[in-house]
Backbone:
């Protein structure tokens, strides 16, 4: 987030920077807290119902070109997501049985491997 920017403004800007599409219709879904020292992040998840524009791999303007983390942009089925090793996907995608598991998620969740 940039100083003075709302969460919704951040969603629209980041989605456009990183994927080339403009979020038109969206709703807030849930908060996920990632706590794995020295990292601690609060992640806000939105469900985007409608976009405008063409999907293309963008970049992260906060990172220099030689340090970009964005390498590929694609749509994946639940089966394709599940075929990835757990350490290669976001924690909210681990154990996904269908997209409703994700799109109907609400509230607050936390990932803290030290508590496991």
Residues:
């Amino acid at each position: 987030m940039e100083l003075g920017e709302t969460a919704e403004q951040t969603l629209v800007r980041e989605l456009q920077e990183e994927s080339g599409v403009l979020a038109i219709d969206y709703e807030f879904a849930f908060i996920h807290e990632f706590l794995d020292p020295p990292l601690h992040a609060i992640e806000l998840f939105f469900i985007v119902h409608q976009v405008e524009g063409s999907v293309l791999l963008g970049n992260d303007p906060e990172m220099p070109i030689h340090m970009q983390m964005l390498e590929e942009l694609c749509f994946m089925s639940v089966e394709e997501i599940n075929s990835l090793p757990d350490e290669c996907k976001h924690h909210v995608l681990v154990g996904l049985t269908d997209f409703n598991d994700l799109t109907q998620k609400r509230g607050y969740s936390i990932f803290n491997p030290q508590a496991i």
